[in-house]
Write a structure and sequence with these properties.
This protein has 292 residues and is an alpha/beta fold. 32% of the residues lie in helices and 16% in strands. Strand 4, helix 5 (116-125) and strand 5 form a beta-alpha-beta unit.
């Protein structure tokens, strides 16, 4: 049997990136040369969750952090140092500086949605594996671009739909595929909630701690409004797709997994206009028809 390093094993087997969470302690104390060197890009709520998951794995060393907001960057660095003491951690405001480093094995990405595909594709080209937060990409074309670069560069990618790994979804899929409820012909999904009314604020000068131009990235230029930035990005079509884009991958996941519908024939959608500066639908109903 050809010998391979533990690092190679973790990177190349089907366990993927996040799945190494099941392995702590399997090999006992991990040599520094065998540890995966990970960097985190985008340090809001989910970005900090990524950091904490990986920093608590003995198989991983977090070596770099990146965010366009200096406050996010500083706060996350403090949190990381409380978990992973003693190691050198570099901080960046431009993710491309991380991709230029040959000593980093993988990155996680928890930026706003409009950056997902660009960062992942460039990471693949730089030889890095990626754990990317949902949704996969801003649109279908971007997802196809990601797949092209992943395959071309033989990289590992895992989508951060954490609920997919839970026992509940696995059990539901097992029950449906066993025929316990018979043949499924109609599925109804729903998610309560919608975008908030953010009013009609006036533009402001970006805070000195925020690189607004880099935050916008591939999105159209617009003046800075605090209400458009950070958590609220998901309520603007330039950056995301509202409640639908935020939660569809969760609530539809179990359906596509369990019954694997084929032959999409039609899509019909209707919605209601939002209030204030938000431009994603206040509510949305979508009907999908597949071959029987």
């Amino acid at each position: 049997m050809k010998h391979q390093s533990r690092r190679t094993f973790l990177k190349k087997t089907s366990l993927g990136l996040a799945s190494i969470a099941i392995l702590p302690g399997l090999y006992g104390k991990v040599a520094a040369s065998d540890r995966l060197r990970v960097a985190h890009i985008g340090l809001g709520g989910m970005g900090n969750s990524h950091m904490k998951w990986f920093a608590n794995l003995p198989e991983v060393e977090v070596v770099a952090l990146c965010d366009v907001d200096e406050k996010h960057l500083g706060d996350t660095l403090k949190s990381l140092q409380a978990i992973q003491s003693g190691g050198k951690v570099d901080t960046y405001g431009d993710f491309r500086q991380i991709l230029d480093r040959q000593d980093i094995d993988a990155v996680t990405c928890a930026t706003p949605d409009h950056w997902h595909a660009q960062i992942a594709s460039l990471a693949f080209q730089s030889g890095k594996d990626v754990y990317g937060e949902k949704p996969l990409s801003y649109d279908v074309r971007e997802g196809q671009m990601m797949l092209k670069h992943q395959n071309k560069n033989d990289r590992i990618f895992q989508l951060g739909t954490q609920i997919h790994a839970g026992d509940n979804y696995h059990r539901v899929v097992e029950l449906i595929q066993s025929g316990a409820i018979g043949k499924v012909h109609t599925v109804r999904l729903w998610k309560t909630g919608g975008p908030p009314d953010l009013g009609t604020p006036k533009p402001q000068a970006p805070p000195k701690t925020l690189n607004w131009d880099m935050w916008l990235g591939p999105a159209p230029f617009t003046d800075y409004y605090p209400e458009r930035c950070h958590f609220n990005y998901r309520y603007f079509m330039d950056y995301s797709g509202g409640q639908f884009a935020d939660f569809w991958c969760h609530i539809a996941d179990v359906v596509f997994w369990a019954i694997q519908p084929k032959g999409l024939k039609t899509i019909q959608a209707r919605g209601k206009a939002p209030a204030g500066i938000v431009d994603t639908p206040a509510s949305l109903e979508v009907d999908y028809a597949f071959d029987a």
